[in-house]
């Protein structure tokens, strides 16, 4: 309180609009006003300020770097002054109309000038011939604001829209026009519509027409939390504290309020102001807020944050107030911080003391080095060319593999310090992370479950079905905040994490019953959280943080509990009696954990595959795992490959077969489309997915339609050249009669189509056959007919291939004979029937290949006479 | 003569024929398989896509039992590209979709229910024969299944006008007794152009015929004169 007593206004300028800015190092505070000088106050000293003369009059904005500051004036001059000798250095740019706002990029190299002209100029502070023009906005601009990286500029236009530009490329391009956030204001109004970038860089806030501060996330342009300021007049200025934990707002109702960012609660209100504050400036490190009003006065308010809240200001960088933090992963995993250090403000942390003459000391901090455009290389697409900086201001070794440590002296610390295996994070198949206030809990071919978080700490869950007639959609208020769900034709399964004193819980709700109430909940032991759940038509599987797999019947009878051998558990899937669990296994050569899966039959208590490897390529992750409608396990990985498991019922025989490589799809072969595929299911031997355009990783609302793709095993890459513009999916429509292309190419493509069909149907045949012939299987007539169909399909394809070879010429006879050997021509007992060989010899005869025909008959005779597998042994 | 209809197919008849085209739907309800005259329909099982004739798709759409997936060439992007092609090339129409290679058997499945020119996997860069009527019908019955129905409507309108004006301009060539390349012209356009083109040709023929008649008359008169001369002789 003693500090507050000492607060007194300093008459910095003659009465009139006055603005202030701190230098990034916090040593100096610069004020500009209506009169023709600027003042430089030193932090922590009550001495008379230094006055810089030879300024313009009626200054409207000021920004400061560590050794210079830039002021803009109503006569259109933007001047740069040196802080070392307090002299005018340069006139950076002149505008024909009054300057309204300036913004300095964090590296101090670029200044954005907003004036009553339509275009915003972004001028290099060191070389004023380098200018970028931003011209998308149709009217004058009131405010400009650089984000923390300096690569994005938010332009608040007087038409009530925010124009967001990306400056990372040579030519600036507009990222987004955000409407409905700010109010349309006159360019000389006292009220503010400035975009306030939150220091964590993922969100920004603006004063709204309702005199509130609205936060919006940058990545998805979703409205996040709101500060209900309760100002009775327009907000004239607002500022985040340097660590983002506090927000200061002020308005022409002569109040100055401090808000807690996380709770949006009022911490302190100062209502003893004499004049409207026009500029708020937080000291970069200390508990000081300086502000200037429209009466020429400057207040340096030390101890602005009351002692009971001042710890807030000491905290490291705080996340922006999202409804749901986007980094809150699919399973709520913590963010991986680089090198294990906490993300911190560069200015606030304890820096490691520099060694004498270290390179950093000589060159100065990175941000303000003299390297012109280099500061503009910003890694906004995650390509990794601008290295992230860890808490100590050093580049991390994130670009190296998990086990690669720099050679040399680090070795001395011993390997245990650097040995950090990367475990695969757990996920729930078919769910998406929070975006804004909603997310999908489950999305499959039966329907979809989504949840909306409401402000008063509950969610509303909606379950919708594709088949509207068969099931009715329902929705309910959810006080438990379920974060995982499974949906099938029988019922819906939900689970929630433990919170407060409540343990984790699972909740099953059947769709139709003949009793009045059959939904049930069951609690897990205290402290156990759920990593994944799965629902089949007869069992419920839950994997937990304590590495237990818990299996329940559909009506809640706990059937089995066991600890997984592969831990921590990643995910699980279930189909009828079969359950598939995936966990992190031993660490592979590249430092990541190998994923291991186990498939078991719960009804027979029999393990089909135990701790077998999920075949992923290095540096790829598992995106989804599910059973197809025929009951075969499928996985989809981050490289866009769909794999299935064949022969999985026999222990040790299982192997992963790629069924579709989405990177090789012909729709991508033109190279113009940028899209990814979000896996949903495999059904009817088709891959069902959601096509995501651009950089999106997860589907969002409104629910996009499902697309389906036929299997396409990666044999050849997509057709190139003239065929690529056909764009059609299947090979038939691709061949064109237009240009009458060379018949050679057509035969070639026809042949590769047949070869692919052969491989695909043999794979499916092998999979189905091994499933049906397994001792535990009881094949249905439908399955048997499917198997017979596949067999016919294989033989037909082989005959077509044989026809091609015969047509090609006599000298292809060897290959033709090889094809003959591939026929599936056996009855149930494994004896050759010889029917296909008869057909084959007829084909050969028809094309006049008598030698081949004779050889085929020879093979047929040998087979008929000989022991079953004679030629296989050769 | 009792039939007052003009020769050729009327627009409603063409629209009727167009309803034979297969379109892709996403059913919202189960339906058993149907044995239709045009072929059998597989059982509908949401949300699996199914190709079915347009008339049935429209019926299910009106009953809100299905969503129709517009063919790729009806997307604003493709239509804009085709429109650009039409305006750039003043003398030809944009090419029709490519036909599949002829199958080995002697059947020629080169018409509606056997070719999928309007399903979700049709070529995105070519207008099929029934493009205008199909587009209009889908926009009328299933506008909510389009991403940007107003834009599609506008582009269809633009395409129609460009192509009709081309068709009319072509008629000038007919005078010389030459033919007109009708490749890529749609069914409805043929029907609309028919009245005009046949009218023009008919008039040309009539003019030609009257000229012929005059010449013949003159010839006859000349011979008659000579006959008279003979007689007089």
UniProtKB/TrEMBL annotation, chain A:
Keyword Repeat: yes
GO-annotated biological processes: DNA repair; DNA-templated DNA replication; mitotic cell cycle
Main location: nucleus
Record-annotated WDHD1 first WD40 domain positions: 10-298
Gene Ontology CC terms, in alphabetical order: nuclear replication fork
Region called Disordered, residue ranges: 397-431, 718-752
Annotated WD repeat ranges: 228-269
Intracellular or extracellular location(s): Nucleus
Keyword Cytoplasm found: no
Coiled coil stretches, renumbered: none
Keywords (A to Z) from UniProt: Nucleus, Repeat, WD repeat
GO MF annotation list: chromatin binding
Ranges of residues in domain WDHD1/CFT4 second beta-propeller: 425-715
Record-given protein name: Chromosome segregation protein-like protein
Lineage per the UniProt record: Eukaryota, Fungi, Dikarya, Ascomycota, Pezizomycotina
TrEMBL record, chain B:
InterPro entries the UniProt entry points to: GINS_A, GINS_bundle-like_dom_sf, GINS_Psf2, PSF2_N
Residues in DNA replication complex GINS protein PSF2 N-terminal domain copies: 10-69
Main location: nucleus
Stored CDD domains: GINS_A_psf2, GINS_B_Psf2
GO BP terms: chromosome segregation; DNA replication; double-strand break repair via break-induced replication
Stated role: The GINS complex plays an essential role in the initiation of DNA replication. Has a role in chromosome segregation.
Entry protein name: DNA replication complex GINS protein PSF2
Source lineage: Eukaryota, Fungi, Dikarya, Ascomycota, Pezizomycotina
